[in-house]
Write a structure and sequence with these properties.
Blueprint (H helix, E strand, L loop, with lengths): L5 H18 L4 H8 L3 H9 L7 E6 L7 E7 L5 H6 L1 H7 L4
Length: 97
């Protein structure tokens, strides 16, 4: 696998997670199942979406605090089609299933 910096990998992780959230209704549990990433890594990446201009919200769908899903409100400067065309590269680089 190619050698990439931690910063580049963190950037790609944000793009990858944003794409997943934009494609389906995901919460932390479903993102863990799809990506194999630890909960804390997912939380940190989602919290840092604003660093790259992506606006995300959590849509509450029940009485429990964590019942619901994430939603991309604004992609900012990010081109969703660009991510889609590089999804397999990002997935392999991030070592996701």
């Amino acid at each position: 696998m190619e050698n990439v910096s931690k910063q580049h990998k963190a950037f790609l992780r944000k793009l990858y997670l944003a794409y997943l959230i934009g494609s389906e209704q995901h919460n932390l549990l479903s993102l863990q199942q799809v990506t194999g990433m630890p909960r804390r890594t997912l939380q940190d990446a989602i919290a840092a979406f604003g660093d790259i201009g992506i606006v995300v919200s959590f849509v509450q769908s029940g009485v429990r605090n964590n019942a619901g899903y994430y939603h991309i409100d604004d992609w900012g400067p990010i081109n969703n089609d660009w991510i889609a065309s590089r999804l397999s590269y990002m997935s392999s680089l991030l070592a996701t299933p």
